[in-house]
Amino acid sequence: MHLRLGCVPTVVACSAAAAAEAMRTRDLDFASRPRLLMVDRFYYGTGGIGFAPYGEHCRQARRVCVTHMLNARRVASLGRVRAQEAAALVDRVRRHAGAVVNLSDNLIVYSNTVISRCTFGDTDYGVEGGGGGGARLRKVFAEIEELLGTVPMGETVPWLRWVDVVTGLEKKTRRVFEEMDGLLERVIADHRERRRAGAATEEEGDFVDLMLDAEELDTGSIKGIILDMLAAATDSTFTLLEWAMAELINHPHEMRKLQDEVRAAVGPGAGAVVTEEHLPRLPYLKAVVKEALRLHPPTPLLLPRETLEDTRLLGYDVPAGTRVLIHAWAIGRDPATWGSRAEEFAPERFLGYDLKMGQDFAFLPFGAGRRGCPGVGFAMMSNELALASLVCNFDWELTGGRMPPVDMSELHGLSVRLKAPLLLVAKPWSSVSVDGVE
Known about the structure:
Layout: E1 2-5, E2 8-13, H1 16-25, H2 37-42, H3 56-69, H4 72-77, H5 79-94, E3 100-102, H6 103-120, H7 133-148, H8 153-156, H9 162-166, H10 169-196, H11 207-213, H12 219-250, H13 252-266, H14 283-295, E4 305-306, E5 311-313, E6 316-318, E7 323-326, H15 328-332, H16 335-338, H17 376-393, E8 394-398, E9 410-412, E10 416-418, E11 423-428
Parallel strand pairs: 2-7
Antiparallel strand pairs: 1-2, 3-11, 4-7, 5-6, 8-11, 9-10
Cofactor: heme
GO molecular function, one term: oxidoreductase activity, acting on paired donors, with incorporation or reduction of molecular oxygen
Keywords: Heme, Iron, Membrane, Metal-binding, Monooxygenase, Oxidoreductase, Transmembrane, Transmembrane helix
């Protein structure tokens, strides 16, 4: 599909075949990112990793991330953080057992606290300490995410940039940036001071420590990558968990099947504590997560790409400088790939399906190719542990004794989430039972 968004020529890839050609066959031709006004402002002109134009900075920043921060050993070593925060999530819900639980708010706290502890360590910014640094950072980032999901008038029609001044968008952007920059300056300064005191080793250090060790990254690049990490927590964890729970509430049979699998694996004497050691033995859990990602990819249109030179896509000429959007939402619901039940929530379709994330172009929630998300392994561990913990420890129902379905109306921004918060009643389950009798 070819469009013109203002002055910007744009191509939308809506099929697995188009995505495969753009992200594998001609990956280098489509590897860059357009310069976006909001990204330039909040990412210090670097684009972090996700938004960076393709070039030496992008390659170096990604190498640091993949090699030092998100390698398999590091992801495994952060299991302690994931386990503690999954337990804290269960405890927060249990404190409201039998009453209405705003699950959306609890999932936001879980996802942001996991990634902020991994990024900043167990500091006021990593947990909800008395100074409120973590809460302030979450508030500022929520505003940043809203602005990153906004397309300024001057972006597509440059001569109308004055409209962004009149509407107050420019003023708001400047205010949020200054607040964010002050917080990140303090985070980095605190880490440098701690390092001078000899408090951080490679094994003990958090992501900021690892970035400070990397000679390739200047302060602006570090700040941009921090924003990437926080965005990933919202996009790949919070929204996925919220959609997965909503779908399970709407499909009681699938909810019960998942609960039976997780509870059988945990066993009657385990205190209903799900650990990461259980996850490889939970195929239906993994199928539920994948099915939620298929129907509700965190970013329905993957981050925009831009052609570096004249190229072709499915036989059509695509000039250099064309913006290219991969429509992950449409690809994930294409009946040509997924059959007549493409619009239905049916996790069993993934049982026995040897899907390799980033290599199957009919399933692209995290992108693919050289611009695919480097944190897929970390995100999937966080998602599976939290979802398994919630369905294992509680039976769930809608408020006021209502019957499903949940209102699945969408709120669009940088990511797509439920328009209304997910309000549920959680009833604790006792693991002492073997046959369902508590």
